[in-house]
Amino acid sequence: MHPVQTNHGPRKARPSMIKRSRVVIVGAGFGGLWAARALARSPVDVLLVDRNNYHVFLPLLYQVAAAELEPEEIAYPIRSILRRLPNVRFALAEVKKVDLDGRVVESADMAIPYDFLILSVGSTTHFFGVPGAAEHAFPLKDMDQAIALRNHLLCCFERAAHESDADRRQQILTFVIVGGGPTGVEFAGALAELIHRPLVRDYPNLDFCQVRVVLVEAKDSVLPDLPQRLRAYASARLRRMGIEVRVRAVVSQVARDSVRLKDGSTIRTETLIWTAGVRGVPQAQAWGLATARNGRAVSLPTLQVPDHPEAYVIGDLAHREESGRALPMIAPVAIQQGVAAAQNIARQLAGHGPVAFHYRDPGLMVTIGRNAAVACVRGRCFTGFSAWLLWLSVHIYKLIGFRNRLLVLINWAWDYFLYERAVRLILPSQQRELAKNQRT
User: Fold this and answer.
1) Residue 254 and residue 312: Cα distance in Å, rounded?
2) Are residues 47 and 25 in contact, defined by beta-carbon separation less than 8 angstroms?
3) Domain C-terminal end among 349, 372, 389
4) 335-367 confidence digits (pLDDT tens)
5) pTM of this prediction?
6) Position 210 pLDDT exceeds 50
7) Which end of the chain is more exposed for a tag (fewer CB within 10 A), N or C?
8) What's 143's domain CATH number?
């Protein structure tokens, strides 16, 4: 902007006359939210767009499915988070199209122009082309899926309580979890504790020797990214909890009432929980983004979209490699990339070039159940009670909102001291489905 000439000599334009750059962030997950926070002090107007009006703390989503936490305890209203960020606004909309050449983001109701764009739309479940998996498996990627899974699990016990055929009852009470990564291991432990503590008391007439929890992993051990000592501890702990751990087991087909493995064996079940993999959202290619084989968008080392220096891709959607390996699709990566993208935009506005992103690995922690966890932090390994306390502390600290931290602490304390879970609720829609199944 050139100085404005007046009869009193040259003077600078008033701030209100200066056009501010507009940054549009698509997705209010960890990456998008931290990017918005990092841009709060930059001379830009930020619009955060998401199809939900709340941010979900995904690391604890499995506890909603396992009836340990209420959904609202791990969710927080986006507008409440943004209140203290005067240059950040929120729009409730589902993005249908991204026009990189025209610099426009489109939803069903609006077209949003931008000067800079940050895509942080996350990932979706990857079924690896297994026949029947998409139709019959229960994924665990968002709040709706977690609530649906919780309802289904509780309905299984209600149905089994009225089932007279022993074979049919065991099929209903067999739960298969596909994927021995952190989510699969944590959910398996939480499900086993739900079954063998509160549900045993809820259903005194059921024979709980018929209940099976089977964890299926295609590689040679659970938690394959952790050191051998931690993998061995996790496997042994899961087995002591009564969980059948089957490694080198690859699912070949999923039906409504069974799961077939590549070794020819079949597990009869009506509950298959799929935590085996995730991939970039399928819209990425339609938006003109170059993608890797797992559907993640290829980006420059600076996180910019090739040929579009004003556009950034971060989080689960971004395919970045360091030391020859793709960065994991976890919250710390998304958070660091969100901050890095915001800082690069600030650098561009100041006339400087963006810098390459480098991930700082904070380590990995996985809880297995009461007083048991594994953690690898800065090259040091922890197991058992100390790792469990570390896991509790970190997750409470990272939750957004004092109310959420307090409620989660209360629920965890209630469960820890009383061996009770207060969230064993079957929603009305599921009650109608349960009644229909019992009639048939």
Assistant:
1) 38
2) yes
3) 349
4) 999 999 999 999 999 999 999 999 999 999 999
5) 0.91
6) yes
7) C
8) 3.50.50.100
